[in-house]
Amino acid sequence: MGGVGEIFISENGLLQVSGETTVAETSFLDLDSDGIINSGSVVLDGVLRGNGRVESTITVNATGEIRNYGETPVYAPEEALLITGEVTNDGTIEALGGEMEFESLVTNNSEVVARDTVVRFPAGMTNTGTISVGGDTTLHGDITGSGSIFVLSDSESLLVGDLTFTGGLLAMTVGTAAGTLDVAGAADLTGTTINLDYSAGIASQTGDSYQIFQADGGITGAFPTIAAADGRIWDITLSGTDTLIATAIGVAAADFNGDGIVNDIDLNIWDSNYGMTGTPPIPGDADGDGDVDGDDFLIIQGDFGGPPSIVVAAVAAVPEPSTLLLASLIFGCCITRRLN
Q1: 83 and 136: one domain?
Q2: Which has the closest alpha carbon to 208: 217, 196, 220?
Q3: pLDDT of residue 316
């Protein structure tokens, strides 16, 4: 069965198809009041949405979606969507409030979004895409794979299961408080990249420390020093066997655009903002002392062509104009300001 339009199943209604059900792009398959879909398989180029039961395997293509809410993205605390067959997601799975349960394996190659909800996947989820969690969200099941998990600011999310990354990305964002992810099982983060986004909300300072991750069953893996979006360098350490702590140990010096290398782009940012003052972070302020001046240029000069150094205190002297002119010739850049 296929076509373009909308099919609405409600009040324990049943849609039974012996073969494949295809939902075309811009089309909808709506469930309400415990409606049931029983099909050999469901292929989504459009949207499956609402609350009820789907007794089928589901393939979600790039334009397809599974939602536990109706036409508008509103939080639906009473909504529950149950899918019994395996799900392969190359589109979007979105749960806002309420519950969503997958009785069989979920393979996520694209995007899963969960906000203030409960999502159950007792057979596990293989993630090579992105899982974004926020608010008061609980995930039940094991997650494995090399994908990404984004934890939104001011959220407390819980994974009741084990987390196994193989070179994935664990990203925490911060608003008025740090987003946290707690794992009730064990977490293997070997090869995982940890990213902190403190660019909005909390004004971090050197020495600040936050708990960002906890796994009751213990954490394994190596946790490198990283640069966050606010320009600070954060040291990620394991406290005991089950908690990750992020501590600000300095600023990421002269890498103003955050690409991991100090080059002409960073020099141009310094030049464009020369003389600016204010509360750090300021583009071009390599030493984090609240102004863009010759001290910052010396740090750029020292790091040029390589990764940024960690700077905790400001560099001392402002260079003479002739020193700046010589350095600008070395870098092949034209710096026209005269420093006093």
Answers
A1: yes
A2: 196
A3: 31
